[in-house]
Amino acid sequence: MTTAAPGAAPVLVVVDHHDDAPRSSAYELLTVARTLGPVEAVWFGAAPEAAVDRLGAWGVARVHAVPAAADLLPPERGEALAAVVEAVAGPGASTVLLASTFENKETAARLALATGAGLMVDAAALEAGPDGRVVAVQQAFAATWTLRACTTTPRAVVALKPNAVAAVAPDGAPTQPEVLTHDVVPAAGPVARLVERTPRPASDRPDLGEAQVVVVGGRGTEGDFSAVEELADVLGGAVGATRVATDEGWIGHEAQIGQTGVTITPRLYIGAGVSGAVHHRGGMQASGTIVAVNSDPESPIFEIADFGVVGDLFTVLPQAAAEIRRIRGEA
Ligand SMILES: Cc1cc2nc3c(=O)[nH]c(=O)nc-3n(C[C@H](O)[C@H](O)[C@H](O)COP(=O)(O)OP(=O)(O)OC[C@H]3O[C@@H](n4cnc5c(N)ncnc54)[C@H](O)[C@@H]3O)c2cc1C
User: Under 8 Å CB-to-CB from 182, ≥6 apart: which residues?
Assistant: First the structure.
């Protein structure tokens, strides 16, 4: 196990990765972390060289690889992360940043419990507080309230929503991060372990939780998602759905957005044939720009839409896709 580094307490960024490359949310966290203190990264698994180089280009001074954590589930990852945090910062202050996903929030909660840290999840922005503590900007009650919170403990664990900030690479030459491998021994006893992975069918579309553009279909599609998928593909976005659409079996449950589904914070949300029910709003109201296409001018989604089109989605969506292609010279 490694020992604590002298000097300022680091900001530890947990780097989510896929196919050995950091996910886009990791670059967003690194961008914010640079504003809070010296940045170090935690990589669950054996960190590949190319990824370490990439993290160096993004301002990471040290990479903490935790090989044993690669196949652990969130609660045990939280315990493993706690061991790393104790090794890096000892009892002193430190901030740990994660992307606010279902799994990471569970990891973060276990980490906070194990290290006596304060926990803030679903942050929409982070700021350095006057006493050096990190301040999380959060949205409550389906984004109708904004609040600023900081922990009463010196150590903070914060989960930041994907797409909440734009990822910006630092100026200056890349550094070569030091890689420290932590031989964390997973807890003995009856813990859950990942024994097998079944990859989802390959798709060129971005992950719903991380996508900058999400096109959502509701009951108004009557089960035909072709126009929704076409517009999503033209915009390089993900496809989402209301609970009605997933319950009807028109699309998989993993596409459901809302209170009992995925929470999304894309830059652009386009809802087609979606009424904007409160359970759906809870999962999308923090989107940057909300566009609604609905044939009923009285539909509640127009109350929260930045841009609304009253019309038939099967006419409006293909027209929008065609126009985008024309502007790009692809038509
Ligand atoms: C405990 C609980 C949890 C829930 N969790 C969720 C959740 O996580 N996510 C979620 O989405 N819902 C959730 N729901 C369900 C939610 O309350 C709504 O029923 C659901 O969101 C409505 O889906 P919808 O907008 O697709 O359908 P509807 O409300 O039926 O709206 C369909 C809309 O399509 C429009 N339309 C019809 N035809 C067209 C057309 N051709 N072109 C354009 N517009 C058209 C109509 O004008 C209408 O506004 C939950 C409900 C409960 C009770």
Answer: 1, 2, 64, 65, 66, 80, 83, 84, 87
